[in-house]
Design brief:
single chain; 304 residues; alpha+beta; 2,3-Dihydroxybiphenyl 1,2-Dioxygenase, domain 1; eight-stranded mixed beta sheet; globular
Length: 304
């Protein structure tokens, strides 16, 4: 969907992996261990789980106050504080969390969004991740009213979460403005990445053989495309494997202007060859990257 995202060069791959593990520890710090912290369930009414669907995302940042102001103004999200963990709500449903991390003394901060996929068994996902070459960044733990979750790194060091929601998962529906609408993974080896996530998430990994393809693989579950994987060009040695979530917006041009006004930056400008210029990648004022997409009914025609 999107051209590879450029990120700053800060040390070796080992340092990046260590930073990811530190972020994971912050993201789940105290939530699963405390018996007093209760988070709102993902759905108000019990619903079936949809293994493979991406159902949540956490932003780990060194300046939560700035991030909260940005996303409130950018997407109209409302936030509620749960002991330093801020739950973001769009309309009437929760969709993300924001958590503060201490600013590193020995390196630049690396704020990022961490996506969570639905699984039927967190323990099974952990075993599959380890067998496929991943690592445990935050072990499985229960969060009152939310469910069981854990954080892993894949074989390339990219951080992601899994969750077995206590209330089931949000139903499949066309995202409204302000909702998550898509997610993409940037990989050094799309085939290996698709094999890894097939093992962990149970996806059917469909290779895209179109000559004008924007992605190399599509991850499918329950008949729905859940994510895409794209290989990072070999020349872009500074680009690190990572997940990039997208939010639906009403107008891409107005949203870019709004992001700049709120102190964000545009990392990838709209291009006519990418869904007729209706998609872009921005960074919030703390440096976390996020995609924005203006959806129209026929935008997926002519390429994928």
């Amino acid at each position: 969907m999107i051209a590879p995202l450029q990120v700053s060069r800060t040390g070796t791959r080992v340092l990046l992996l260590s930073a990811a593990v530190a972020l994971a520890a912050v993201a789940l710090s105290g939530l699963s261990a405390s018996q007093d912290v209760r988070l709102p369930p993902l759905t108000m009414k019990t619903s079936p789980r949809i293994p493979g669907k991406f159902i949540w995302a956490d932003l780990v940042t060194d300046d939560a106050a700035v991030a909260l102001k940005f996303y409130s103004g950018m997407f109209g999200w409302r936030f509620r504080n749960f002991g330093g963990y801020f739950i973001g709500v769009n309309e009437d449903h929760p969709l993300c969390g924001i958590v503060q991390q201490a600013r590193p003394k020995d390196r630049a901060a690396q704020p990022r969004w961490l996506p969570y996929m639905s699984v039927s068994s967190v323990d099974r996902a952990q075993r599959a991740a380890l067998k496929a070459g991943g690592r445990v960044a935050a072990p499985p733990g229960n969060v009152l009213d939310r469910g069981e979750q854990a954080l892993f790194t894949d074989g390339e060091g990219a951080l992601f979460g899994v969750m077995k929601s206590s209330s089931g998962d949000p139903k499949d529906f066309l995202a409204e403005p302000g909702d998550w609408i898509w997610i993409q993974f940037l990989s050094r080896d799309a085939k290996k990445a698709s094999d890894f996530y097939h093992a962990v998430g149970g996806y059917e990994a469909r290779e895209n053989n179109a000559s004008n393809r924007l992605n190399d693989y599509v991850l499918v579950s329950d008949g729905y495309a859940r994510a895409t994987i794209r290989t990072i060009p070999k020349a872009n040695t500074h680009v690190q494997p990572a997940w990039l979530p997208f939010v639906r917006v009403k107008n891409i041009g107005e949203s870019i202007a709004q992001a700049k006004q709120l102190g964000g930056k545009v990392l990838i400008e709209p291009k006519t060859e990418l869904f007729n210029g209706r998609v872009a990648v921005i960074a919030d004022p703390t440096g976390a990257a996020i995609g924005i997409l203006e959806w129209v009914q026929d935008m997926a025609k002519g390429g994928s």
